[in-house]
Amino acid sequence: MSAALLESHAPTTPTRQVGVVLVHGMRQDGSAWARQVDHLEALGHSAVAVDLPGHGRRMSERFSFRRAWDHLDDAVASFPRDTPVMMVGQSLGGYVSLGWAAQRTTPDEDRPLLGVVASGCSTEPRGKPVRLYRDVADGLVRAGSSVMRRLAPGAGNDRDERPGWDLVTDALGELSGWSALADLEAVDVPVWLVNGARCHLRWQEQRFARTADRGALVVVPGIGHDVHLDAPDDYNRVLSRALADFARD
């Protein structure tokens, strides 16, 4: 399927209420979506910004895809019955969202998935580069834990106080054997890819867009990886258009 390059959109009035689940990137939390939550609620939609394992209110949890999907399930279940759902994920949250959409073996008839907006995750998260990054992060964690034990014996036993790089090793350990392209092939709803022009994870965006079912590609000029934070108004316009298109389908 060919991808559409969408440069800008005017705000679009929604055709029906949708429940939107927003999934943040690595070392962020649900509060990163504050501008998008306000925008979606102003349009009359319901919005839930989750905290992934190892982040925000769930800092004490070890990160895994399975556990993250459980939290996405809970977020979807929080919407009233007969509410269609859109999933929005950024970076790590984008990979989590695509994986969640791909592994839905029994779609929820009460809360059907309309589509996915995936940002900053248009590169396969596997292979040597990810393993190298993970190994470097692992070394930083071990070094940091050693320093903490010398400075404050007993510190580091509480998971909430562990170094932030520990989370990175967990997440990259999961991603190193993962294929987002395989997830895209399995997702049976429209997928929009939204990237900043300077994002370091857009290397394979054309291939991703071709693989996506009814895929669209949006590139925001002059913006880096965290497009929803760096260009919130542009991002909100894209969400408005995606909602209208998904709801029509």
Characterization of the model:
The chain has helices at 34-42, 65-77, 92-102, 128-151, 164-175, 180-186, 205-211, 227-230, 232-248, and strands spanning 4-5, 19-23, 46-50, 85-90, 113-119, 191-196, 216-220. Strands 1-7-6-5-4-2-3 form a seven-stranded parallel beta sheet, with helices on both faces. The longest helix has 24 residues, at 128-151. The two termini are 17 Å apart. The radius of gyration is 18 Å and the shape is globular. By secondary structure, it is of the alpha/beta class. The protein contains nine helices and seven strands. 46% of the residues are buried.
Structure in a nutshell:
This protein has helices spanning 34-42, 65-77, 92-102, 128-151, 164-175, 180-186, 205-211, 227-230, 232-248, and strands spanning 4-5, 19-23, 46-50, 85-90, 113-119, 191-196, 216-220.
Q: Strand-residue fraction?
A: 5-15%
In helices, the fraction of residues equals: 40-55%
Distance between the termini: 17 Å
* Biggest beta sheet summary: 7 strands, parallel
Count helical runs. Answer: 9
The strands making up the biggest β-sheet line up spatially as 1-7-6-5-4-2-3
Topology, number of strands: 7
